[in-house]
């Protein structure tokens, strides 16, 4: 034990000496070495620092993994600028680098394919996106939309139902479901889904589609209510105001119709549909110059509109400029060769100009397009009568009477035809049917043209029916009803016995495109105004110069 203590007492001095000797390497020994040793013994012992760990060698840099989405921003920029060729080249490079695993590049490529009309190819690409990201609702919605555009409405409904399970409150899904059910004519389900879409998020297009469903069910009151709610939600939308005005026009509320059409033109002075509707109202009241001024504004923005040129032609017709009317109608028939209204009016104008062969040609074309319209057969019978084809004229009148069970003018014209050919008993029967239809029209408060009553009043004595006819007692009441402020006044007869013809009012409610769906079904046929009558038959001069009267066609 003593030896170990002695050794331990010596060790500090030795270590100090070693430290001092290490610090003065290279220095010469001095006589004061003993003093330096003594002072070193008195100095405090230095504290040893723990050994510092040596830094590990830096590992090698890991290889960079390829990023599939690195060019998405550039693809997006070119796509929104509609630079599709550059976008396609970038997509091709991106798909080569990612080996077809870049979802966004495939998505944009599918959108471009759809815009170019390649719907089937776009569907396949969207399905690929759905496989890459099965949890994406947007991919499923795009797949369903492509199916819709291909006309596969039931398949689109199945996909939309799958998407609705992922997002229960997406208004767009329910809106598009309603549109699909609309084209499948399942109106109850269409209304249910469209109401859900409006409940989750109010959009103008959903209101328009819901109103369209009610119109297809012939529920005009509910359609009016829907459009009123839509106008309250968006009071400055010219499309909604125009559609509401057209509905008021259809129900005979002309003051409200003109008010809403005026509001639509206030917010958008060049809104073509509002201009067409307002011009048609002016035209029906005989303000042809004002209507032409309105149409001139619309022609600047839509010079290739067949309904526009049809209405312009009818303005010239009302001003008795028949050559200009035929010229405009020829342009309209060039733009829309399958529009029966244009063919109809061309036949009427040619009848007025006593060009019966041309009238027969255009009326036959209109009948081929609308074979179940009785007024067309009546006009064709008039043309055949003037062409001295009695047999075919009789067959045309019989077909007109068979197809049209409401228009009293058909029976009156047939009565005149039979009277001119000496068939008095058959003429009396047709006149009796005319009276019955006239009474039915009064029960439904329908406006009766005074010219029809005057014509029948002259025909009655010729048939030895007397002047005290059933409908003749209420002739004054009908005249008062025709001037009622809520009804449109009956246009005055022209000197050539031709009242204003049919017009294209553009009264069909637009199929507002749904939230990513373009409408594919044609809208319902528009209503028409009063139609012109052909010239009177030469044999009618002794009884009436206005017997062969053309009635207002009803769709």
From TrEMBL:
Superkingdom of origin organism: Eukaryota
Name of this protein: Bardet-Biedl syndrome 4 protein-like
Gene it is expressed from: LOC109461634
Originating species: Branchiostoma belcheri (Amphioxus)
Compositionally skewed regions (Low complexity) per UniProt: 508-519
Family statement drawn from the similarity comment of this UniProt entry: Belongs to the BBS4 family.
Biased composition (Polar residues): 7-28
Ranges: TPR repeats: 204-237, 238-271, 306-339, 340-373
Region annotated Disordered, chain positions: 1-63, 476-555
